[in-house]
């Protein structure tokens, strides 16, 4: 059974049909990429999976449960975590406190009121910062980080709850080539305990980290398969040449 299944998804905004019977299936410990030209429906499908948008038709299943009408907060509690394009770290707080707040979302209210959680969570905070090569900046304000480092911090925050599925919407946007390379290295270890769905325009980046790809065009699924299968697909080649 797939961890995530989006079945026959239609999403209309008035007369505009952004998704036209699109589908997505992601297995346990799988890195799955969503690619396609601008306006193909990638981010809309991601939002339908995350609960930021409700499909006009179709259904979304997570770990065998129908979550189509489930609020985003309940999806998070079920094991889904999302990072959108725009960085949402708290710039005035330190990196340490940004991670701490993400971890405290799981802490009991009484522990927060008695300030017990900061001491109890210290090792977890530092482990997350070390995992994303930010431990030496732990007491720096998040605002002092480079754009790429802020993206790494937010990915670390999204992983703080140890989700079963992480959704990333264009995480390498605005990064340098070196930052993109490092981002791929930082994501690889999470495959041991977390699946990933990633929307990305950088085809070299997504090819290097993903097991399977789904290609969208004009709201429809053009092809799904392994990276070599997608690279050799004539329909995919035609779409990218047509939009180049």
Question: Would you kindly provide a written description of the structure presented here, covering whatever features stand out?
Answer:
Helix content is 37%, strand content 25%. The protein is of the alpha/beta class and 244 residues long. It has 2 domains: 161 residues, Rossmann fold, CATH 3.40.50.300; 75 residues, no CATH class. The strands form 2 sheets. The protein has a 6-stranded mixed sheet with strand order 6-7-8-3-9-10, sandwiched between helices. Strands 2-1-4-5 form a 4-stranded antiparallel sheet, with helices on one face. Helix 8 links the parallel strand 7 and strand 8. The longest helix has 13 residues. The radius of gyration is 18 Å and the shape is globular. The model has no long low-confidence stretch (mean pLDDT 90).
Protein traits:
11 helices; 244 residues; Rossmann fold; 4-stranded antiparallel β-sheet; 6-stranded mixed β-sheet; 2 domains; 10 strands; 37% helix; alpha/beta
Gist of the model:
With 244 residues, this protein is α/β, with parallel strands linked by helices. The protein has 11 helices and 10 strands. Helix 3 runs parallel beside helix 7 (147-159).
């Amino acid at each position: 059974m797939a961890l995530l299944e989006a079945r026959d998804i239609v999403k209309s905004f008035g007369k505009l049909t952004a998704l036209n019977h699109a589908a997505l299936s992601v297995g346990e410990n799988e890195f799955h990429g969503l690619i396609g030209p601008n306006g193909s429906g990638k981010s809309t499908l991601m939002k339908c999976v995350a609960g930021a948008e409700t499909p006009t038709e179709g259904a979304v299943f997570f770990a065998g449960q129908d979550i189509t009408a489930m609020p985003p907060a309940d999806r998070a509690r079920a094991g889904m975590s999302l990072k959108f394009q725009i960085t949402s770290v708290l710039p005035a707080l330190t990196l340490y406190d940004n991670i701490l707040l993400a971890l405290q979302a799981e802490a009991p209210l009484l522990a927060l009121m008695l300030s017990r959680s900061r001491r109890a969570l210290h090792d977890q905070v530092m482990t997350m910062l070390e995992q994303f090569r930010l431990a030496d900046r732990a007491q720096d304000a998040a605002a002092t980080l480079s754009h790429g480092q802020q993206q790494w911090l937010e990915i670390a925050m999204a992983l703080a709850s140890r989700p079963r599925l992480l959704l990333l919407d264009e995480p390498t946007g605005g990064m340098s080539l070196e930052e993109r390379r490092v981002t791929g290295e930082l994501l690889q270890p999470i495959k041991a305990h977390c699946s990933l769905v990633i929307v990305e325009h950088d085809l070299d980046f997504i090819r290097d980290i993903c097991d399977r790809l789904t290609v969208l065009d004009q709201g429809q699924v053009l092809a799904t398969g392994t990276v070599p299968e997608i690279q050799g697909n004539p329909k995919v080649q035609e779409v990218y040449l047509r939009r180049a």
